[in-house]
């Protein structure tokens, strides 16, 4: 049996398992509400692991370990920022958003919620937020396709273009068929696989190098700077890396998990499970990249793959250190990370096109069955565009993710945060915050102070715009304030 055959068998079994879950979910999908939010029926475990898996993407097993491997422990500031941001998102936004969306016309999507929460009769908020989702999520989806292509390219020796289509096909299929329930159920399986891989792999790397002390000594001997948390970083650079945490408040695919929980009481347990999972996974990803430095320093003859592309460090270590069957399972974790994020991103794009544009403007009286099938068609369309964007083999996963993450964080983050916490916020404030946040990210990337991550000025300017424009105009109606107060009272109830 050749080296790749056990891996191939493992991958095929794994993919077939995910597709099978998709078809089981298909039988439970009766309405568009089921297709987009699973009928708001997720328990705490599925809510927690689905939110975590949909968040991390191929970046967790490729982008982050690669950054640590190339630059040392200083890149872990991103992980610290993400943990702080995720905890605040669970603590401040999750429960409130679950209740607020229910009180505001049972909103199924973020544009739907914005339109109802701020009584936007012009539908400008719905259109602009749907356009922001489509622009930045198509880029985000492309990052997932690139990560999947890199995996199949490295593991099976495929050329990049073939790997592109193979990596995307299974995700498209189960998302297309099963919708939100398929995505959430598969996310739970995938999150379990990811944490297994990220705990086991660094342990085996440390053992292979000769223990923890020897590993640290090898890393220190190569370059003392690898152990320096501030290597090459000034204050602005540290703030930029920590600023990744701000992105959580505006990520539609994560916020959708909060909206789909069976009640706001589920959120507390979900938060504990999700944060434990996240800390272990991020710690494991940092350890893979960090101790990978020691392994390849000791085995330069095996370093050809990581020399070409540092983002392959997890892939190379899994292939070298484990027998092919175990390696196949570990490498399936990358596929799990890619599929879990890509699937829910495709679903959010589909919901924006179907609920917010197709139903909102073209077919207001469309049947539930029609909306489900239009939703499936939109999944396919967005997937094909993402594959086209990912066609350039020079694409880097972390670069694509950072841009899309900043776009959502700045455009939606302040609007969501103020929207669930401040009853005085108005439609003009939401509109100004969304537009200024998105434009700041788009323009800062090319014309701003390059050392400062664009999410930080975007988030700051959007927040200022929300407060200024809300206070300048007429306040929200009495009915809007009553709905907000009723939702907040329900949230505060035990």
From TrEMBL:
It catalyses: L-proline(in) + Na(+)(in) = L-proline(out) + Na(+)(out). Coiled coil: none annotated. InterPro entries: Na/Glc_symporter_sf (IPR038377), Na/Pro_symporter (IPR011851), Na/solute_symporter (IPR001734), Na/solute_symporter_CS (IPR018212), Sodium:Solute_Symporter (IPR050277). The keyword Ion transport applies. CDD domains: SLC5sbd_PutP. The chain crosses the membrane at residues 6-29, 67-88, 124-152, 164-186, 193-212, 232-249, 277-296, 325-350, 371-391, 403-422, 429-449, 455-473. Keywords: Amino-acid transport, Cell inner membrane, Cell membrane, Ion transport, Membrane, Sodium, Sodium transport, Symport, Transmembrane, Transmembrane helix, Transport. Signal peptide: none annotated. The keyword Zinc does not apply. It is a multi-pass membrane protein. Pfam families: SSF. It comes from the Bacteria. Its main location: membrane. It is found in: Cell inner membrane; Cell membrane. NCBIfam families: Na_Pro_sym (TIGR02121), PRK15419.1 (NF011948), sss (TIGR00813). Belongs to the sodium:solute symporter (SSF) (TC 2.A.21) family. Catalyzes the sodium-dependent uptake of extracellular L-proline. This is Sodium/proline symporter. It comes from Pantoea nemavictus. The gene is putP.
């Amino acid at each position: 049996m050749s080296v790749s055959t056990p891996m191939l068998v493992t991958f095929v079994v794994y993919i077939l398992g995910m597709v099978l879950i998709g078809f089981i979910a298909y039988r439970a999908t009766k309405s568009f509400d089921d297709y987009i939010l699973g009928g708001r029926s997720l328990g705490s475990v599925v809510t927690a692991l689905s939110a975590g898996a949909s968040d991390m993407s191929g970046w967790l097993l490729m982008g982050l370990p690669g950054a640590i491997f190339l630059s040392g422990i200083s890149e872990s500031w991103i992980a610290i920022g993400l943990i702080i941001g995720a905890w605040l998102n669970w603590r401040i936004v999750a429960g409130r958003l679950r209740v607020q969306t229910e009180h505001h016309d049972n909103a199924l999507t973020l544009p739907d919620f914005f339109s109802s929460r701020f009584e936007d009769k012009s539908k400008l908020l719905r259109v602009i937020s749907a356009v922001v989702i489509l622009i930045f999520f198509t880029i985000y989806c492309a990052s997932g396709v690139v990560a999947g292509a890199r995996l199949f390219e490295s593991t099976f020796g495929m050329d990049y273009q073939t790997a592109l289509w193979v990596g995307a096909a299974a995700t498209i299929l189960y998302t297309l068929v099963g919708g939100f329930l398929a995505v959430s159920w598969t996310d739970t399986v995938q999150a379990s696989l990811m944490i297994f891989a990220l705990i086991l792999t660094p342990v085996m790397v440390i053992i292979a190098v000769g223990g923890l002390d020897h590993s640290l000594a090898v890393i220190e001997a190569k370059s003392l700077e690898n152990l320096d948390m501030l290597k090459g970083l000034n204050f602005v650079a540290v703030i930029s890396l920590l600023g990744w945490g701000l992105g959580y408040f505006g990520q539609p695919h994560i916020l959708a998990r909060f909206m789909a929980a069976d009640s706001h009481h589920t959120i507390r347990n979900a938060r504990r499970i999700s944060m434990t999972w996240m800390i272990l996974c991020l710690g494991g990803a940092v350890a893979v990249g960090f101790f990978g430095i020691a392994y390849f320093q000791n085995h330069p003859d095996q370093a050809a793959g990581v020399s070409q592309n540092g983002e392959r460090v997890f892939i190379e270590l899994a292939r070298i250190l484990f027998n092919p069957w175990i390696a196949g399972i570990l490498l399936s974790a990358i596929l799990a990370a890619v599929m879990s994020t890509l699937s829910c991103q495709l679903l959010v794009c589909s919901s924006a096109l179907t609920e917010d544009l197709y139903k909102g403007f073209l077919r207001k009286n469309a049947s539930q069955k029609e909306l489900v099938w239009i939703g499936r068609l939109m999944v396919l369309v967005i997937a094909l565009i993402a594959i086209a964007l990912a066609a350039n083999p020079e694409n880097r996963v972390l670069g694509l993710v950072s841009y899309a993450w900043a776009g959502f964080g700045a455009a939606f983050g302040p609007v969501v945060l103020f929207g669930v916490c401040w009853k005085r916020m108005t439609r003009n404030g939401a509109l100004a915050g969304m537009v200024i946040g998105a434009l700041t990210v788009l323009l800062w990337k090319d014309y701003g102070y390059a050392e400062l991550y664009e999410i930080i000025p975007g988030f700051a300017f959007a927040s200022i715009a929300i407060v200024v424009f809300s206070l300048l105009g007429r306040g929200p109606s009495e009915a809007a304030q009553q709905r907000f107060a009723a939702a907040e009272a329900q949230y505060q109830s035990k």
